[in-house]
Amino acid sequence: MLSLIKFPRVFSINQVPKVFHEDSIISGYRHPRSSATDCILSLFQMTNETLNIWTHFLPTWYFLWKLVTVVLMQQGWQDTFTWPLLVFLFSCCIYPLASSCAHTFSTMSVRARHICFFFDYGALSLYSLGSAIVYSFYIFPDKWLNSTFHQWYIPIAMANTIVCTILACYSRLGLPFLQYNHDVVKRLPESPKFSKFFRILAFAYPYLFDNIPLFYRVFLCTGEGCTDNDTNMLHYKHIALAFITGFLFAMRFPERLAPGSFDYIGHSHQLFHVCAIIGTHFQMLAVEQDLVMRRSWLTVNSIPVSFANSVGPALLCVVLNLIIILLFSLPLLSAPACQESKREKDKKKQATKHCSCY
Ligand SMILES: [Zn+2]
């Protein structure tokens, strides 16, 4: 059956515009003006994005299954104490889904690429908020319950989500309306390192903030009230995986050692996806176990769960993130378009043309 389908051609790095280049990835690029059908077909052919897509598309269903299980089987919606878990599981579905969609459709045009990754960054920011909400109710060490830091933890995490979505979107093209290039094809700075620094900061900072109570609990706390229970082993695992994930993202390892050798299988972005998902899996197991083990203690001694401190902040940040993405996307959507005929002609010629309207 598959042999009857004509898969789109793939290109080398020199045949696609610079904005599509990935460091040390030499081949396997899709056409920079792929149709939506070609993008979907590319899921079933080997390109340098195929495993990026599948490594987040399949886990989306795993986390969705977990979410549905809690909602339907355990009737989580009626039990306010499980609302933070529902928010967290929702964020665990959204970030791999947004990522797999971004990787699938990012080669439709330069504009589509930027907008796709704006959604990817927004979803990652929501995941950091989902982690903060679930941590606030299940993993805070006994010592810190009801402290001033605990009371401000979710509001600060909400502010982080907004700031970090803005920062990550800013890292692509600068500020909308003020700094975007007229031809919208270049990344923000001439130096990609500058752009990458902002993006790493946008993801690392909320992660480090969210984990302050957990790092304190498992690495620093001594004496009474440290919540030193069996779940700590699971927490060690997801913390270790998070650091490996960050290392892979930042260092572009292993492809930087042998450019071109890992174009299709084994490059850092695929490993980054896999480590992030395994880390999220262990994080989910850890928070579920803390929920079960500490529930009776937390119900009596901690801040009670309400709509206003769990589902409400998540919904508000979904709306605010969508507004931010819209603001960053509007100038791209309203930028002058190439004449359709010229674009079609260029497309037929070949992908090497650096048309400003890609
Ligand atoms: Zn990705």
From TrEMBL:
<feature type="transmembrane region" description="Helical">
    <location>
        <begin position="234"/>
        <end position="251"/>
    </location>
</feature>
<comment type="similarity">
    <text>Belongs to the ADIPOR family.</text>
</comment>
<feature type="transmembrane region" description="Helical">
    <location>
        <begin position="271"/>
        <end position="287"/>
    </location>
</feature>
<protein>
    <submittedName>
        <fullName>Progestin and adipoQ receptor family member Va</fullName>
    </submittedName>
</protein>
<keyword id="KW-1133">Transmembrane helix</keyword>
<feature type="transmembrane region" description="Helical">
    <location>
        <begin position="307"/>
        <end position="333"/>
    </location>
</feature>
<feature type="binding site">
    <location>
        <position position="103"/>
    </location>
    <ligand>
        <name>Zn(2+)</name>
    </ligand>
</feature>
<feature type="binding site">
    <location>
        <position position="273"/>
    </location>
    <ligand>
        <name>Zn(2+)</name>
    </ligand>
</feature>
<keyword id="KW-0479">Metal-binding</keyword>
<feature type="transmembrane region" description="Helical">
    <location>
        <begin position="152"/>
        <end position="175"/>
    </location>
</feature>
<feature type="transmembrane region" description="Helical">
    <location>
        <begin position="117"/>
        <end position="140"/>
    </location>
</feature>
<dbReference type="GO" id="GO:0016020">
    <property type="term" value="C:membrane"/>
</dbReference>
<feature type="transmembrane region" description="Helical">
    <location>
        <begin position="196"/>
        <end position="214"/>
    </location>
</feature>
<feature type="transmembrane region" description="Helical">
    <location>
        <begin position="53"/>
        <end position="73"/>
    </location>
</feature>
<keyword id="KW-0812">Transmembrane</keyword>
<keyword id="KW-0472">Membrane</keyword>
<keyword id="KW-0862">Zinc</keyword>
<feature type="binding site">
    <location>
        <position position="269"/>
    </location>
    <ligand>
        <name>Zn(2+)</name>
    </ligand>
</feature>
<feature type="transmembrane region" description="Helical">
    <location>
        <begin position="85"/>
        <end position="105"/>
    </location>
</feature>
<dbReference type="GO" id="GO:0046872">
    <property type="term" value="F:metal ion binding"/>
</dbReference>
<dbReference type="GO" id="GO:0038023">
    <property type="term" value="F:signaling receptor activity"/>
</dbReference>
<dbReference type="Pfam" id="PF03006">
    <property type="entry name" value="HlyIII"/>
</dbReference>
<dbReference type="InterPro" id="IPR004254">
    <property type="entry name" value="AdipoR/HlyIII-related"/>
</dbReference>
